[in-house]
Design brief:
There is one protein chain. The protein is built from 6 helices and 11 strands. By secondary structure, the chain is an alpha+beta fold. The radius of gyration is 26 Å and the shape is globular. The chain has 2 domains: about 30 residues; about 190 residues, Sortase (Sortase, Chain: A).
Length: about 300
């Protein structure tokens, strides 16, 4: 009897062990598959960026809403017509040109507003913005396929600037904290000042302009209730006075683990990278950088 009971227990333990081992192996295989698929997707986007040389199609030129060919029918004097066309061309502002490396990507998805790259880190991704649903690309990839990694997403209240237009004072980019290290999965390495100093240059290109930012600080925070009277980094987008900038710098400095730059003046532009963190409910980890001034 005793031996029989022992055998049954041994068989039960063996079965449980095999099921557990199979489950672990299966989950590992699934995770590896999705990680490999994600890396292949991002690598294909990076290749498009690197190889892109084609011009985007140009819209038909027009004058007062009529194509030149149609407007010409109203003009019998060819010389006068040509003079009016030349004057109209001279008065018409030149549309901004999309940088060559982003033309093909933009032609495939007009929701793309730029590209974020930090050397020697996994961050090398397109940035999306969808005013109609800010969180959409947190659950979908560049091509609109369901993807738990999502994309990097620019806050709808941020204005990256178009061509020569002035961007908002602060641009906020959100991303998932993926265990694989994808998206902002490694962003919290900036909690260490030594790491931050070694990776202090952050490149964020809009479709029209290449930009460099220098690390200012890193800190932990959270999303607060609307009625809580506390500093909310995620509500700062525009500063038109020194007082507003001073309030911003004071707020981030009080939270910061370290500060590499403590100065700000009107005209300065900031880039804020934000991801989920689990030190508290609705926790966030944040990296702030300041754009290098031209010249």
């Amino acid at each position: 009897m005793g031996n029989s009971k022992t055998e049954r227990l041994n068989r039960a333990f063996t079965f449980i062990f095999l099921v557990t081992a199979f489950t672990v192996l299966f989950n590992s295989a699934v995770s590896a598959y999705y990680a490999r698929r994600e890396e292949e997707l991002q690598e294909s986007l990076r290749k498009l960026k690197a190889d892109s040389e084609e011009e985007l199609p140009v819209l038909t030129e027009s004058y007062n809403g009529l194509p030149y060919s149609g407007f010409a029918l109203w003009m019998k004097d060819e010389g006068l017509r040509e003079k009016m066309v030349q004057e109209a061309e001279a008065m018409k502002p030149s549309p901004p040109e999309i940088l060559p490396q982003y033309r093909e990507l933009y032609s495939q998805n007009n929701d793309m507003v730029g590209w974020l790259f930090i050397e020697d880190t996994p961050v090398d991704y397109p940035v999306m913005q969808t005013p109609w649903d800010e969180s959409y690309y947190l659950s979908y990839d560049f091509y609109g396929n369901p993807d738990k990694n999502g994309c990097l997403v620019m806050d709808t209240s941020s204005d990256p600037g178009k061509g020569m237009d002035t961007p908002s004072t602060n641009i906020i980019i959100h991303g998932h904290t993926m265990k694989s290290g994808a998206m902002f999965g490694k962003l919290k390495l900036y909690a260490d000042e030594e790491y931050g100093r070694a990776h202090s240059v952050i490149n964020f290109d809009t479709l029209y302009e290449e930009r460099e930012y220098d690390l200012v600080c890193a800190f932990y925070s959270k999303v607060y209730y609307e009625n809580e009277d506390v500093f909310k980094y995620y509500q700062f987008f525009q500063a038109d006075t020194q007082e507003e900038l001073d309030a911003w710098m004071k707020g981030i400095s009080e939270l910061s683990l370290y500060m590499l730059d403590t100065e700000a003046e009107p005209g300065d532009e900031f880039l804020t990278l934000s991801c989920c963190s689990y030190q508290t409910d609705d926790g966030r980890f944040v990296v702030v950088a300041k754009r290098r001034r031209k010249g």
